[in-house]
Design goal:
Blueprint: H1 2-20, H2 27-41, H3 43-63, H4 67-89, H5 108-132, E1 133-134, E2 145-146
Helix pairs in contact: 1-2, 2-3, 4-5
């Protein structure tokens, strides 16, 4: 009973992520969540996802390896949230805007909400990465591994 529900939820999230992907906001996160749910329901998906998960964890660890990198990562995610606030404030089309007026801040209020939510998730992921991922040992050539995982 659990597996069909996980498959249905996973595919629903994947489809929603594909629809949301071109819009400003969490389309890629929703898509990744759908693949994660599918991996919990199907061993074949989990096997294909494993190398991507390892690469993602290594990239996350590198992004918070030092305090300057952590601050740059936080600045990027906060900038994403700040651009969402621009969508929420909905300023008038500026005089320097050369494209048609309909091209100014497309997507409306919900795009702003999605960007602010994406910024919040980004900040949470940076904090999680900083707390949860360990630095590479000296002499390892920069090979990173998440805490609790063994090195090959």
């Amino acid at each position: 009973m659990r597996t069909p529900l996980l498959l249905a939820l996973g595919w629903a999230l994947v489809l929603l992520g594909v629809v949301l992907y071109p819009l400003p906001g969490p389309g890629l996160l929703v898509l990744a969540a759908g693949v994660h749910v599918l991996a919990r329901a199907d061993e074949r998906v989990a096997a294909r996802l494993a190398p991507w998960k390892a690469r993602g964890l290594r990239a996350a660890a590198r992004s918070v390896a030092t305090w300057p990198r952590t601050l740059v990562s936080l600045a990027g995610t906060l900038a994403l949230a700040a651009t969402g606030l621009v969508w929420l404030l909905d300023p008038a089309v500026p005089s320097w805007w050369v494209l048609p007026a309909w091209a100014w801040l497309p997507g409306g209020t919900w795009s702003g909400v999605a960007q602010v939510a994406s910024g919040a998730v980004g900040v949470a992921l940076v904090v999680w990465s900083r707390v949860r991922l360990e630095a590479p040992p000296p002499g390892s050539g920069g090979a990173w591994t998440p805490l609790g995982c063994s090195r090959p």
